[in-house]
Amino acid sequence: MDTATNYSEKKLKIIGTSPVRPDGVPKVTGLAQYGADFSLPGMLWGKILRSPHAHARIRSIDTSKALALRGVKAVLTSADLPEQKFEYVGPERIAVNFWHMTRNIMAREKVLYEGHAVAAVAATTSAIAEEALRLIEVDYEVLPHVIDVDQAMQPDAPLLFEDMITRGIVPAPKQASNISKRVEFKIGDLEAGFAAADEIVEASFKTAAVHQGYIEPQACLARFDADGQGEVWSSSQGHFIVRTFTTRLLGMKTGDLRCHAAEIGGAFGGKTVVYVEPVAVALSRKSGHPVKIMMSREDVFKATGPTSGASMTIKIGVKRDGKIVAAEGLFKYQAGAFPGSPVMNGCMCGFAPYDIANVRTVGYDVVCNRPKSVAYRAPGSPISAFAVESTIDMAASKIGMDPLQFRLMNAAKPGTPTVYGPKLAHHGFSETIEALMQHPAYKAPLGKNQGRGSACGYWFNGGGESSATVHVNEDGSVVVATGSPDIGGSRASMALMAAETLGIDYDKVRPIIADTNSIGYTQGTGGSRVTYATGLAVINACNKVIAVLRARAALIWNIDVEDVIWEDGSARPAGKRAGEFEPLPLKAIAAKRSVTGGPISASESLNAGGQAPGFAVQFCDVEVDPETGHVKILRFVAAQDVGRAIHRAYVEGQIQGGVVQGIGWALNEEYIYDQAGHLSNAGFLDYRIPVASDVPMIDTILVEVPNPNHPFGVKGVAEANIVPPMAAIANAINNAIGRRMTELPMSPPKVLAALDAGN
Amino acid sequence: MARKPAHVVFTNSFSTDYTGGVKEFDIEATTLRGVIKALDERYPGLGEYLEEETTVAIDGELFEVGYSQPVRPGCEIFFIPKIEGG
Amino acid sequence: MAKHHVTATLNGNDVEFLCETHQTLLDVLRDDLHLTGSKEGCGSGDCGACSVTLDGRLICACLMLGVEAQGKSIETIEGMAVGDKLHPLQRKFLEHAALQCGICTPGFLIASRSLLERNPDPTEEEVRFWLAGNLCRCTGYHKIVEAVLDAAREMRGA
Predict the structure, then answer these.
(1) Of A376, A611, A709, the CB nearest to B86
(2) Could you report the per-residue pLDDT of B58-78, keeping only the tens digit for each?
(3) How far is the alpha carbon of A70 from chain B, nearest alpha carbon, in Å?
(4) Which of A504, A485, A686, A492 is nearest to A585 (CA)?
(5) What is the dihedral of CA A206, A208, A209, A212, to 10 degrees?
(6) Which one of the listed residues A114, A465, A623, A719 is annotated catalytic?
(7) Is the pLDDT assigned to residue A759 strictly greater than 60?
């Protein structure tokens, strides 16, 4: 007899409540340990020397004076790391090329951006390490640089890689350029589609690079012992990623590095790669001592991946009755110093919310002298959505239709083909638009200089490899171990799902994140996949434990296991033996584990599929100050199809957090470079992220259209909410002052210029 | 009675890079392993690429590429670039 | 260069330490006194993750030198709970899910306590402006503000 694995029909006891998270007390008392909070006896301080130039050839590096400084125990350059083969491996969208990666960790022939790592030292104090950096002599031959994506695509632009031939073009171009890749997606017949349109809207847009803005700089502690075994404690979204990348970059065996996931102070995609870990392990290897490295805030801005800035053109054809008949998008994304912008995601997601028969998206991945771009919350999708959703708004306006009604009319439904091929398989988008339209404030009147704008967004959401182990303690409490670093409160969700499945109290479940030696392989935390995929592993492991508990009860009662069910946290006799024995709760069976077969535990490792995409629909009210160009957010309402909210408050928190990041992206955040290719605003004072006084309360609407492929109906929630805000705000500004902002950020000087120009 | 073959579709860049522009195939198979094997027989080397670098959508549902993934008669299979999040 | 010898009061206890001239109070707290609850987010006083109070005044520990602590009274996050009894603000942050990654939380708690000591009945706007010196990237501030207002209510006995 199988234990039920789909709970969507059952009444749930604790799923959907908001209990206190299990890792909460250490965080409010300052005891939780983040990447920079670890230390070991004999620890050295590691520091990294970085390029002052945006683009230069490295003629030579002389580390002799640094090595001679008293207290310096090791100096590292790229000469200490093995060369890597040049090949793109793995998924095309984020193809990793270790030849590039090792050069980003430590420059070889050239430095490609200001802040590019060139050398590193480990010394007995932080001050000595800093002094040692000053003693390293690097002979640079400064080269011309290029920052802007359109300029980097010009035929006469300075080349970052003299042999870069654009991939994705057939026949391959003869001349090298900064365009690393071209991608194209197409369905239907574009010409026929536009020919049938009553109105055509076309516009071009530009966005700036923005940083994930996590408050915690990258940091780690590493140890390398004389027997070749290493250990790392770092703040990462994936300690298995840390292990894979670090061992590869150092020429170590994968299993020789034990990686621990420290608590992490924000990530949003930016910590799915490595920067300091390979350097710290290599320094530890060279010096024979543990090494701690912490990046400074300036280094974080200069040398860790922001997301791409972009240059885009969108064209949409509509019929007067509101049907979108054709859509086309051109997306040029900055990759930074090495290939790998999320332009393919942008091409795939931009028009995904809509049912359009004729669509074409073309994307270019362009290198330029900036830090290499890295994932930022729904990578690529917020950027293309700014352009697409602004143009959608313009199209709705042209035919005189309410913007949300326009979106509802064209909303993708199950069976709608995406531009990249597969037909949408999940409900949820239309329901979310409808829920938003019903918000009481959607029809509220607006005052002078005030405007309302809406937008929507799509994100794939991920499945993938996760492992979980569940074991029962002697007192009937339960440990749930997974390999998924907790970046948003997922331990609480794991505990909720385990408690619901086992039928025990939430506070009887201890969720932990195990290190790479202690749990099965698990892909990184990102892509809104943990509650779904790791949750599935946890639920399945719990069901395996339930099977064991039923067997133990059967043994205790001396009956057939087919006559034992598990219900409400206890084994109960059923079928022909119903009522013969008192129920045995988990605690009682745990107490009898020894005579019934021994310790009770189970594991599950899986490669999850069947996840549903995320749809977010939002509207906001703004007030524009015509004297200063300042935009005030008066109200922000964000609706999202969340499948089923496991921990209600954390789901709301994800939406609120993503929206506020979007507000910063829309109104203030940007990388500002000077003529020499130096970053002018490498700190929180001038790289202005939203503060508490910049934003109002964020209203959230959780639409629950359960995913039938998950026992609790889970859909990933963390990322889709950052996709719409920039366009929603641009559309609101247009509604307020009749100016279409086509460049991000829409900061006061730009809004003022738009007002003055009367454009 | 003949089992209706699965209809396999590649996106544009896949077909350009690996199958000389051919985008759609009818493949007889009961598992994804069978599909990949059949495609690899036609285009040697394609199998490894599909295994390592794609996600598969079967009638719209996304799955990681797995040998034992069942393939229903007449289903529509898309191999798409693998996903990444932030 | 000889280190400086400093005696001060830390979370109500006598403390003494040696520090170099250039070391900030934050460096001393974290690296020498092993109190890692105060965090370094920026090192330039812009993020508030290192918020502590100095003789009752809210400051960024990264903007003060260790030597300047001589004879002063410092309160850090580690002193906020009394034994196993959490401060109402700590409890409310947990109840309201006002933290996600938690790195900014110690700073917010110290800053909020400082606000409520001065203004036990703040408006939402007053809370937001007081806390404008503390950056959070995860929560969007919504639940933080709710937690502070709720804690203020409880502390007023309202």
Answers:
(1) A376
(2) 998 988 888 989 999 999 999
(3) 42
(4) A504
(5) -110
(6) A719
(7) no
Domain boundary among A249, A277, A303: A303
- Nearest by CB to residue A660, choosing from C20, C131, C141, is C141
With an 8 Å Cβ cutoff, is B74 touching chain A? no
C57's tokens: 């005044």
Q: Where do we find the tokens 């401060």? A: C87
Lowest mean pLDDT among A127-141, A561-575, B50-64: B50-64
Number of domains in chain B: 1
Question: Quick one: pLDDT at residue A94?
Answer: 60
**Which of B54, B62, B76 is best to mutate for the A interface (most A CBs within 10 A)?**
B62
* Host domain of residue B43: 6-81
CATH number of the CATH domain containing B23? 3.10.20.30
Q: Does C68 share its domain with C95?
A: no
ipTM of the complex: 0.97
B49 in a domain, yes or no? yes
Do C92 and C146 lie in one domain? The reply is yes
Check pLDDT > 60 for residue A227. yes
Q: Which two tokens stand for residue B49?
A: 């690429």
Using only C-alpha atoms, chain C has a radius of gyration, in whole angstroms, of 16
Boundary residue ending a domain (C79, C98, C130): C79
Residue A421 pLDDT more than 90?
no
Residues B15-53: b if buried by 16+ CB within 10 A, e if exposed: ebbbbeeeeebebebeebbebbebbbeeeeebbebbeeb
Q: Would you call A719 a catalytic residue per the annotation?
A: yes
What CATH number is attached to the domain comprising A480? 3.30.365.10
B70 touches chain A (CB under 8 A): no
Q: How far apart are the CA of A39 and the nearest CA of chain C, in angstroms? A: 9
The residue from C79, C113, C140 where one domain ends is C79
- Joined tokens for residue C95: 């109840």
Substitution target from A28, A221, A302, A618 for chain C, most C beta carbons within 10 A: A28
pLDDT of residue B22: 80
Residue numbers of A between 663 and 722 with CB closer than 8 Å to B: 709, 719
Question: What's at C114, amino acid-wise?
Answer: S
Residue A377 lies in a domain: no
**Partner A contacted by C18 (CB < 8 A):** no
Other residues' Cβ atoms within 10 Å of the Cβ of residue A483? 28
- The CATH number for C111's domain is 1.10.150.120
Instruction: Indicate the range of A55-59, A480-484, A601-605, B76-80 predicted with least confidence.
Output: B76-80
Please tell me whether residues A74 and A49 are part of one structural domain.
yes
Domain count, chain A: 2
**DSSP code string of A535-604:** HHHHHHHHHHHHHHHHHHHHHHHTS-GGGEEEETTEEEE-GGGTTSS--EEHHHHHHTHHHHTS--EEEE
Work out the pLDDT band at A1, boundaries 50, 70, 90.
Answer: very low
Same domain, residue pair C97 and C68: no
pLDDT of residue B86: 66
Residue A16 within a domain: no
Tokens of A72: 């310096």
- For A517-564, the pLDDT digits (tens) are 999 999 999 989 999 999 999 999 999 999 999 999 999 999 999 999
Q: Which chains touch B (3 or more CB pairs under 8 A)?
A: A
Q: Which of A267, A658, A693 lies closest to C129 in CB terms?
A: A693
Same domain for A28 and A135? no
Domain coverage including residue A596: 24-32+463-608
* Domain co-membership, A28 together with A133: no
Q: Is residue A40 part of a domain?
A: yes
For chains A and B, CB pairs below 8 A equal 116
Domain span including residue C100: 88-156
Model confidence at B84: pLDDT above 80 = no
Q: Are A28 and A81 in a shared domain?
A: no
Q: What is the DSSP letter of A306?
A: -
Mutating which of A27, A295, A487, A493 best tests the C interface, going by the most C Cβ atoms within 10 A?
A27
* B83 near A CB under 8 A: yes
Is the same domain home to C17 and C75? yes
Q: Does A272 touch chain B (CB under 8 A)?
A: yes
- pTM recorded for the entire structure: 0.95
Q: What share of chain B is helix, strand, coil (3-state, %, to 5)?
A: 30, 30, 40
